[in-house]
Design goal:
The chain has a domain at 38-143: FAD/NAD(P)-binding domain (3-Layer(bba) Sandwich). The longest helix is centred in the N-terminal third of the chain and has 21 residues, at 4-24. The chain has helices spanning 4-24, 46-57, 88-101, and strands at 38-42, 61-65, 105-108, 111-119, 122-129, 132-138, 140-143. It is α/β, with parallel strands linked by helices and 152 residues long. Helix 2 (46-57) packs parallel to helix 3. It has a four-stranded parallel β-sheet. It has a three-stranded antiparallel β-sheet with strand order 4-5-6, with no helix packed on it. It holds the Pfam family Pyr_redox_2. Keywords: 4Fe-4S, Iron, Iron-sulfur, Metal-binding, Oxidoreductase. Residues 39-151 form the FAD/NAD(P)-binding domain. GO terms for molecular function: 4 iron, 4 sulfur cluster binding; metal ion binding; oxidoreductase activity. This is FAD/NAD(P)-binding domain-containing protein.
Length: 152
């Protein structure tokens, strides 16, 4: 049953066949697809806010979706930050105000993403905002959801 010599010969033959096949391969044709210059950011916490501001500063249209009625995420439930002893609201306030003031950021509060379809550079998203559906066309999606504080 054990024949290492034959197994080695078979492996060598398989490698030779693979190399011979690879020599005949042609490169795939490159295609260019237009990309919609906007982004859907899911999650209105610190990471979502940071992503939205960064993209908006680069000139992209941003749709920031938050399921709760206000931006801030988990940081809304924190009084002081552990490492700096700084009040969370003092840190969060200016960022939220920047989002509200930025012309390139559209905030969707009390909203859930109901459906997403499409492909890279061209997504269709359906939002459910208090029972009212709306559709968006975006080129990219950033998922910034789900942070939880550590409970030892």
């Amino acid at each position: 049953m054990r024949e290492p010599g034959k197994a080695t010969e078979k492996a060598k033959e398989l490698i030779k066949m693979g190399v011979a096949k690879a020599r005949l391969l042609q490169p795939l044709e490159e295609i260019e697809i237009p990309v919609i210059p906007s982004c859907l950011v899911m999650g209105g916490g610190v990471v979502g806010i940071s992503a939205a501001l960064n993209l908006a500063e680069q000139g992209f249209e941003v749709h920031l979706v938050e399921k709760e009625g206000e931006l801030g995420g988990t940081l809304l439930d924190v009084y002081k930050l552990f490492t700096t002893n700084e009040e969370a609201s003092k840190l969060l306030g200016p960022f939220v105000q920047k989002v509200k003031d930025h012309s390139k950021i559209k905030t969707h509060l009390s909203t859930k993403v109901k459906d997403v379809s499409g492909f890279i550079g061209n997504f269709d998203a359906t939002l459910d905002e208090d029972g009212k559906e709306s559709k968006l066309k975006v080129g990219t999606i950033i998922v910034a959801t789900g942070a939880e504080e550590l409970k030892p």
